[in-house]
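Data availability excerpt. The first of two example chains:
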Amino acid sequence: MRQLRGQERVITADRQTSWAFADAYVAEDDTLHWARDRARDAGVPSVSPGTGAALRLLAGTADAKAVAEIGTGTGVSGIYLLQGMRPDGVLTTVDLEPERQTFAKQAFRSAGFAGNRARFIPGRALDVLPRLADGGYDLVFCDGDRLESLDYLAESLRLLRPGGLVCFEGVFADGRTVDSAAQPAEVIRLRELLRTVRESTELVSSLLPVGDGLLCAVRRG
């Protein structure tokens, strides 16, 4: 019997259990639970604990002082990012719905972050991002419209300093990204994003199996 290649390994029940354990490894406090409840009430998806922990780790590893976030939601991902950033770091977070940002502001305050640690900008991401400074960010986290993923990537490459990170949430699309059946345009766009990031000579990338898939890449110096 020939040896299976990595991508052909069977996903066993044990492996699924291990992934679930890894995603639940991080304990969340009352503030994060509150933000999740607000997201659930509003019908807004929020990052899993495993994804949040990965973002916190990446922000800490990058010693991030300036982070841009596409998709504020109710503040779950923002709390994790702020926890990993430098104490003087500022999170610039963009969302189309100002009422969501109101919840996020309350969550950040409850988590103990000073008001000057976050800059909230309501609006469509592709209208806001061009106004942000070239090379001024250590990390860009993208959790917005999947149809705009490639545009977010282009903007991120402009915004990031050499050695900075870009991360995309939800690239598994609940398993549809690898499903051979006909898929909607947003899933096709995610496949294009994955291929573009993997083939880019400007980026060093990895696809992390946390939450619904976290695609991460470092901009080469």
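And the second chain:
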Amino acid sequence: MKVNQAEFIISAVGPSQYPEDALPEIALAGRSNVGKSSLINCLISRKNLARTSSQPGKTQTLNYYKINQDLYFVDLPGYGYAKVSKTKREQWGKFIESYLMNRETLRLVMQLVDLRHPPSKDDQAMYEWLRHNDVPVIVVATKADKIPKSRWPKHIKIVRETLGMDKGVQPLMFSSELGLGKDELWGILEQAIAYGEPEPEEANELEIQQEQDKEQEPS
């Protein structure tokens, strides 16, 4: 996808603030400092649309970024670090869970894990929850540039086994610094939102036109 326009829309604190234009949404989940903002900026070829917080765990809202007129990236609050009360963490958990379970326009969750380290307990819990609730998910292993290329296969294997991913399913290796995995990830996202495919009404009109053309062909 060629990104011609990308803009921050809103930091939503509840469903009443979610956009109502029915564009497909791709959510980003992961621990604080795993590189969600950097990944967004890399995908859209911008340096600072998505701001990296200097205080891990600070993001407490759903940050909506509109890409062209095609989709939203929805940056979820980072988990596993925020220095807040247990009550507040539980509120965030219910807030995020409600979004993931009930948002009709959600097409895919990108769960980001740091390739340098085995997935944390929070990473494992998130992946298990998404799979259990049939929420479409792709695991993106970030910061590949931080370790030698020769060690990539070992670290990918650790991510797969720690998360308990199905046989044949691989994390997508990514580096915002190198642009590694960018094109492959865009391909997956385009497929998830059916990018370039006709809308149902357009498809029906196309089928009708094709039938009419057949009828008019000489026998």
